[in-house]
Design goal:
Layout: E1 9-13, E2 17-23, E3 32-39, E4 52-54, E5 61-63, H1 69-91, E6 97-101, H2 103-112, H3 115-118, E7 121-125, H4 134-147
Parallel strand pairs: 1-6, 6-7
Antiparallel strand pairs: 1-2, 2-3, 4-5
Helix pairs in contact: 1-2
């Protein structure tokens, strides 16, 4: 079972924001300090009509799928978060890392991580906890780690 040691970093993300936290105590009684908060810039709603392209046949046109700007922003956010984590890992700011995010976002972040960051991950928790209080995040992360098997 992975444990929260003093100095373990916990990253809680949802594709629009991420909390970077450090555990100040131990696994028995975790106490997370927020180090930084990263926010995705506001993305406007899709206001453009989807494009159209010609079909074979006389005077026929087909609609193209509209660009999902929010999806593109989430992908970019995962990449930016991975770069931030790499910078901190390379500087030696953390040696152990717990990633917490909804499954889809967790996968997007994982796809972007540098091997140096991957080597420091002790656990991944597929929950969206970004809108919870720090106390609730501490409780949920500890419970999830306790439930994991070696």
């Amino acid at each position: 079972m992975p444990e929260l040691t003093n100095g373990t970093w916990i990253v809680v993300a949802d594709g629009e924001k991420a909390l970077l936290m450090r555990n100040l105590t131990d696994h028995r009684d975790p106490n997370f300090e927020v180090i930084a908060r990263e926010d995705q810039p506001e993305v406007p709603e899709n206001s453009d009509r989807p494009g159209r392209m010609p079909d074979p046949g006389p005077n026929q046109m087909s609609a193209m799928e509209a660009t999902d700007w929010r999806e593109l922003a989430r992908d970019r956010f995962a990449k930016e978060l991975a770069e931030i984590l790499y910078t901190h890992a390379h500087r030696g700011d953390f040696h152990r890392l717990v990633l917490v995010a909804a499954p889809k976002i967790l996968g997007e972040i994982r796809d972007e991580l540098h091997p140096e960051v991957e080597s420091k991950i002790i656990a991944e928790i597929d929950k969206d906890l970004t809108h919870h209080s720090r106390d609730k995040i501490e409780t949920e992360v500890k419970a999830a780690l306790d439930a994991m098997e070696d």
